[in-house]
Amino acid sequence: MVLLGGLSAAALLGTTPENVMLVVNQSSNVSRHIGEYYLHRRQIPLPNLCRIETAESEEVSRAVYEAEIERPVARCLQSNQLAERILYIVTTLGVPLKIKGAGAGMAIEAASVDSELTLLYAKLKGAAVHVAGPVPNPFYRQMRARFQHRQFPIYLVTRLAGYDFSDVAAMIDRSLQARNRGKFVFDLKAGDGDRGGNDWLQEAARSLPKDRVILEDTSHVLYNQRDVIGYASWGSNDRDRKQRMLGFEWLPGAIATEFVSTDGRTFARPPDGWNITTWEDRAHFFAGSPQSLTADYIHEGVTGCSGHVYEPYLAATPHPQYLFPAYFNGRNLAESYYLSIPSLSWQNIVVGDPLCKIGKPD
Q1: Largest Cα–Cα distance in the chain?
Q2: Does 153 have pLDDT greater than 50?
Q3: Dihedral pair phi/psi, residue 125, rounded to 5°
Q4: String of b and e for 178-198 (b: at least 16 CB within 10 Å)?
Q5: Residue 6: predicted pLDDT
Q6: Distance between CA atoms of 322 and 37, rounded to whole angstroms?
Q7: What pLDDT band is residue 279 in, cutting at 50, 70 and 90?
Q8: pLDDT, tens digit, 9 for 90 and up, residues 183-206
Q9: What HEC string does the chain produce?
């Protein structure tokens, strides 16, 4: 049975350029160029462009985040009377990626810039937000609800990022060509210790038409698949995966997610010869980790992908059994991902054009 068959038209509203605020870092050439390109391609109204000025550094302190990112974005929303109209905030490559913080485990104060910005609407309304640890996402699993501030006092924040301008421009172009066709590929991980994530992947597969699904439930890793519109796996946490790149043929509009702790840690380009490895092989880490990279999926041809800047723990990663049915049935990219993410003010990022959607099946 396919979920959301009765999804109302009202639930799919609010997906126009007028609902998007674009955040550009004036200190970054690539951020400005991406902003100009997206503004033109998506016809974002000029008042919805928010220019900030901060360091190009991927990691910043919370004080810098609040003074140079959050407060300027808040001023853009308030000065242009956009706080209610804006549903989606889009950051760009060159806007800081993550906020360092004290603590450990689920009480850590570190978070992604984008996930922290989701709470800006509530803050504008006077809500107090705890810095340490995750905040429950009120939109999580609300599969039939229209996204609106009255019910969900948050912004949905995505990022236009890749290894360079060319990667991001190509991703934006693909978002405008998206159609509902192709295969959804789910690659499970061998081993009884990972039952939870595997169960989610199987549930995702059951929620979609059988003729649109490829489900791999053995130790075999899927490479070189064709006509892929959706993908979920354990990424480099699957010990049987040995290749950094999957070699997939991704269709325009394709989205991906994986259960990996640090895949969104950086958008710096690794050396061409770098490959995923193990936590024991510290000599071959890249950007402090051996794990797969969100930016590799964008570079290979994905139109949207999730990631994590620091350890999120499995329970807080995107849940594919909500992500893919929502996207298949007409939700846009931003809403589909945030329906599947349990927590905000946490480690998650969503890369892609929030307005991208594949529409109804061909």
Answers
A1: 55
A2: yes
A3: -90, 5
A4: bebebbbbbbbbbeeebeebb
A5: 39
A6: 31
A7: very high
A8: 999 999 987 556 789 999 999 999
A9: CCCCCCCCHHHHCCCCHHHEEEEEECCCHHHHHHHHHHHHHHCCCHHHEEEECCCCCCEECHHHHHHHHHHHHHHHHHHCCCCCCCCEEEEEECECCEECCCCCHHHCCCEEHHHHHCCHHHHHCCCCCCCCCCEECCCCCCCCCCCCCCCCCCCEEEEECCCCHHHHHHHHHHHHCCCECCEEEEECCCCHHHHHHHHHHHHHHHCCCHHHEEEECCCCCCCCCCCEEEEEECHHHCCCCCCCCCCCCEEEEEEEEECCCCCCCCCCCCCCCCCCCCCCCHHHCECCECCCCHHHHHHHCCCEEEEECCCCCHHHCCCHHHHHHHHHCCCCHHHHHHHHCCEECCCEEEECCCCCCCCCEC
Tally the residues of the chain: 362
Q: What is the pLDDT of residue 192?
A: 54
Give backbone dihedrals phi and psi of 170, rounded to 5 degrees, phi first: -65, -40
| CA-to-CA separations, 124 to 96, 118, 156, 189, 301, in angstroms, rounded | 22, 11, 15, 43, 37
Which pairing describes strands 156-160 and 88-92: parallel, antiparallel, or unpaired? parallel
Mean pLDDT of 16-21: 96
- What does the block give as tokens for 161? 């990022």
Give me the percent of the chain exceeding a pLDDT of 90: 91
Give the strand pairing for 111-112 and 88-92.
unpaired
Find how far residue 10's CA is from the centre of its chain. Answer: 24
pLDDT digits (tens, 9 = 90+) for 90-127: 999 999 999 999 999 999 999 999 999 999 999 999 98
Tens-place pLDDT, residues 207-246: 999 999 999 999 999 999 999 999 999 999 999 999 999 9
Residue listed under structure tokens 């948050």 = 154
Residue with token string 């006092």: 153
Count of C-beta atoms within a 10 Å radius of residue 346: 25
